[in-house]
Specification:
Shape: globular
Structural class: alpha+beta
Strand content: 25-35%
Number of strands: 7
Number of helices: 5
Radius of gyration: 16 Å
Helix content: 25-40%
Strand order of the largest sheet: 1-2-3-4-5-7-6
Largest sheet: 7 strands, mixed
């Protein structure tokens, strides 16, 4: 449990959660999510597609019981990074989006990414988390570094130039220990 509150994560319901997600992904602060012009139906369709995908999963993160962030995990052997790097056994890909707010709490986003990483590493089969944020997303690069990610190289994805970065369980534990 963080000093900021309690985080829990549940599977996303693409239809019930679509309106909430639509507000989040079309907000100006979610520009790097690349859904600024999405209609509600577009969001429903995208998350129905993810729900039906064997190797891609979406979750709603709750802070003290209230929706606060979106988390996606995927198998990079089949989704997002196919042909862009050499996957290793135990790799899992991750995206996260913190809900926009008019009342930001200092340290909240870092607490969210920490909760996301804890959730991913709760699976003993996960050895390394892989991310591919936009090279221009300096805020997320700093957050990733704070929880142990190390950038490897820039890669070209169809929708963006991305910074391929990795975080092993040991790197995450070391970063978490350093921040206490």
């Amino acid at each position: 449990m963080s000093t900021i509150g309690t985080f829990t994560i549940r599977p996303l319901d693409p239809l019930k959660d679509a309106e909430l997600l639509h507000r989040w992904v079309t907000h100006p602060k979610a520009a790097f999510w690349m859904m600024q012009d999405a209609r509600l139906e577009d969001v429903e369709r995208e998350y129905m597609r993810i729900a039906a995908h064997e190797h891609h999963h979406a979750y709603l993160g709750l802070h003290d019981g209230e929706p606060a962030f979106l988390m996606e995990k995927y198998d990079p052997r089949y989704v997002e990074l196919v042909g862009l790097y050499e996957p290793e056994p135990g790799d899992v890909g991750m995206h996260f989006l913190v809900a926009p707010t008019d009342r930001p709490v200092h340290g909240f986003t870092r607490a969210v990414i920490t909760a996301v990483m804890e959730e991913l590493f709760a699976d003993p089969a996960v050895r390394r988390v892989v991310v591919e944020p936009d090279v221009g997303n300096k805020a997320v690069h700093a957050l990733n570094e704070a929880v142990g990610f190390e950038p490897e190289r820039e890669i070209d994805k169809p929708e963006k130039r991305a910074l391929l970065s990795f975080c092993t369980r040991e790197q995450f534990e070391a970063a978490r220990g350093a921040s206490i």
